[in-house]
Amino acid sequence: ELKVEQNPLFLSMQEGKNYTIYCNYSTTSDRLYWYRQDPGKSLESLFVLLSNGAVKQEGRLMASLDTKARLSTLHITAAVHDLSATYFCAVDSGNQFYFGTGTSLTVIP
Amino acid sequence: EAEVAQSPRYKITEKSQAVAFWCDPISGHATLYWYRQILGQGPELLVQFQDESVVDDSQLPKDRFSAERLKGVDSTLKIQPAELGDSAMYLCASCRAWDTEAFFGQGTRLTVV
Predict the structure, then answer these.
(1) If pLDDT is split at 50, 70 and 90, which confidence band does B104 have?
(2) How far is CA B20 from CA A85, A104, B11, in A?
(3) What is the pLDDT of residues B78-101, one digit of tens each?
(4) Do the Cβ atoms of A101 and B44 come within 8 Å?
(5) Residue B41: its chain A contacts at CB < 8 A?
């Protein structure tokens, strides 16, 4: 069974700072997705990474994929309070998604 | 913008009662997923449909859970009888094909008392 691990599980950071969330997975996959979830809400798609070396950026968030290392990163630049949420990576293996454990991000003013 | 529709948004039910959730995927999306998300954890797949056929239900507790997608469009997930441990968010997602991005509905928050 494919395992997807995220770290850190909890992240508290000050506004204006930079940080990176890591997503490691245990088997070969060329497709990885990042989702955001606000408390009590559903999952919102952030990024779709479909090949080795893929890099996507949207605002203060940038995601990358290294399929050889089985690693994806979500980099936060100059964090703002609105980014506070839980972030999940999901790996596409065969015909289903496996979700990571999630990273709960709190941005402190 | 097309969305995955789920109902109800919230459901409170007593232990041992039956409960059902409904999902209408984005039009044209052949693949439909039901996930369960316990508070503080990531979503776990319960069942995956490709059109009207079940592709994977290995994690579905079949003694009490059932799912159907009779015409390959909307889907129903049923729990009978509900147990306290079933309290969770039930999320439906759909995608055009198994290797494309999945879009999630707003979810049904189930509380079993």
Answers:
(1) very high
(2) 29, 30, 9
(3) 999 999 999 999 999 999 876 678
(4) no
(5) 101-102
